[in-house]
TrEMBL record:
This is Class I SAM-dependent rRNA methyltransferase. GO terms for molecular function: methyltransferase activity; RNA binding. It comes from the Archaea. Gene3D superfamilies: PUA domain, RNA methyltransferase domain (HRMD) like, Vaccinia Virus protein VP39. The keyword Hydrolase does not apply. It comes from Candidatus Iainarchaeum sp. GO terms for cellular component: cytoplasm. It holds the Pfam family PUA_3. Residues 13-98 form the PUA domain. Its main location: cytoplasm. GO terms for biological process: methylation; rRNA processing. CDD domains: AdoMet_MTases, RlmI_M_like. The lineage of its organism: Archaea, Candidatus Iainarchaeota, Candidatus Iainarchaeia, Candidatus Iainarchaeales, Candidatus Iainarchaeaceae. It is found in: Cytoplasm.
Amino acid sequence: MDSPKAQQKGEIPKLFVARDAEARVREGLRLLQKRHVRKLKGAPNAGDIAWVVDENGKFIAQCFCNPSAEPIAQVISLKEKEAIDAAFFSRKVIAADSFRRAVLGFSGSYRLFYGEADGIPGLVVDRFCGICSMQVSCPGVERFKDAIAAALLGIDGIVTVVERNDSRSRERLGLPLKKGVLAGKSKTQAVIEEGAVKFEVDVLRGHKTGFYLDQSENRVAAAKYCRAGSEMLDVFSYTGGFGLHAAAAGANVLMLDMKDAIAQARRNVKLNGLESRVSFLEGKAFEETKKMLSRPKRFDVVSVDPPAFAQRPADLKRAARAYHQINYNCMKLLKDDGILITSSCSSYVSPEGFLKILSDAANHAGKEVSVIEQRSASRDHPVPAHSGSAGSYLKCVFLRVRSK
Ligand code: SAH
């Protein structure tokens, strides 16, 4: 390996990859694992720029290297001469924002930047009105945090950039855990509008970036199945997500979640003036839905949107049982021709695998189910096509449920 001195003289570290990995980078692969790399020439520090090269040392891409972690490299540009500097990040951020607004028609609150699909793996930015919430999972991108924040503050209406770099997964990458205001005004709460409803978003205290924007269009779509007098159950309701849309469409809603989430959901119900249509149940979803089975009340619409049961491939079996169980309970809680809106955000559960779990649960529950809508994350969460179904971690399936 070359000495660090060699780098100072301007020699760029090189990652030699085999032919199949070369082809995959050309197709769109942006995260390189150690198994893709045959040889590393040079001694890059975490976050340094390196070149991905073919077996003969010919340039394929520029990447950020993280030599002792997985992924070992994140491809950042396919152009040999492109300068990876503040202006590069600014161009990418502005392009991602313009696409959301001018082409997709988003405004106000949306995922403004989504990693690979927007050209910078390891960077996620959600916008909640004037506040941007940033998550970084790449040491190379970490070095440009301030430049990214400056670019965001240049976008019309954005006054604050918060970092939510408190995900434990950063430790594996050798990055510190941090959260707080990174640039701009010290403002961390916003009231956002989503379809017909409003949510109070606490960017520092909310989950992940502060709020689950990935389910946004699915929550709006759920309202189509609710009308005055419908009975709706929202299991894992968090800050009121699906249930608020149902209530705004006229349904009587029961929100079920743990204590802290319910406190926030209550505030959002009040914010929308929907107190008369919403009631709350604090408790554990598996136990409470099981208890409800022995009572007569049945629902027209049930939403079930649990946390990721499979965090690692090793969790898959246990996760499949949990998805089966909660969906079994929820199917049984529906009236005939009721609608089950069921989600899974585990990236290790494929869309096909999820449908299989649902079909098994239906069989077990004595129900016949058919798919009405098969949805994924909202359009502001684009997924590179080359990653196939593995890229769409969020599954949200709308089912018609009938007794057999
Ligand atoms: N549907 C929501 C997001 C749900 S996030 C939305 O659209 O915003 C998952 C929720 O599951 C969290 O609010 C968490 O508090 C809740 N949760 C996790 N485990 C739970 C359990 N065993 N019982 C009840 N709620 C649980």
